[in-house]
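User: Predict the structure for this protein chain, please.
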Amino acid sequence: MQVTIKVPDWASYVLSDLTDMDRNPQPLNPKTIRSFKLSLPDDCYFEYAFVREDRAESAADIDAKVLEPDPENDLRADNPWYPGISALQGPAYKPDPLADPILEAKGKVRRFRLESEHLAQTRRIISYTPEGFDDKPLASIYIQDGVAYYRIARLPEVLETLIAEGYPPAHLIFVEPGDRAKEYRYNPHYQGFMVEELLPFIADELGASQERVVMGASLGGLMSGLLALNHPHLFQTVISQSGAFIGSPDELDFYSGKSSWVLETLQQEKPLPLRWYVDTGKLEWLYPINKQIAETLQAKGYDTSYAERNSGHNWVTWRNGLGDALRFALSGLAH
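Assistant: Here is the predicted structure, written as structure tokens:
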């Protein structure tokens, strides 16, 4: 579809899925750029916003609080990180059925407070055990950005729907970061917290089995891949949604970095006993690296599922992939 976006006369920047919103805002001059055109697939979902000139003196001043929707577009994005911005939805766009699950989650929710020496703080954890399996030694799925996956993506409801379809159950372990930009960026303290503190804690509290899945989106997808690559004896499956695989421990630039530690490691090292689910939006700057990661995994002989959608770096994209992601992860568990 062809879309013409009129530039508001008050706008100084435009941001979108292609710029990771406020991380790479593009300057505008309404006096010289009155409008711009986008050519998008008919089944697309895409988010964007503007910034007023008087609300940001420079790109460094821009954050979620100063973003404003397109006054010519009434469709608002379903984005908890950037509320109230605009969305474009193609005439052929159809959400995945499990993007908005209807089955109620009636399992057991537990809330823990774990004192972490690695992080030097108390970390809150939420676990969900499917209904009827409270006394079983289940596999566990460790989820970065846990509260978002718990509340926004409604992962317990997605899990219960798949169990009703015949897939095996698992514990869901929702792990919320403190400062995700610091903790998910190759941070050894966070990795130590996960493998040396959280995993044993969950095994003791829930009687969880040794089968483990690790998952996350964006930087959470990166950290999930790092945990599995560095500790393949502890995890069997990785779910990465729009993984931020640009950069390395020495180049913490996940937008324009030239290196990719994860890609180079996968290319150079012998395959590990890991299964990978990788999905990405095609309308985001991380699409090329995620496609490369998936192609490398497949070439190396990893058990890999790869999906790409005509959408951006946002929760609509990730919610549309959750059904397939969990199907892949659960199908690898012992029944």
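Residues 2-89 form one domain.
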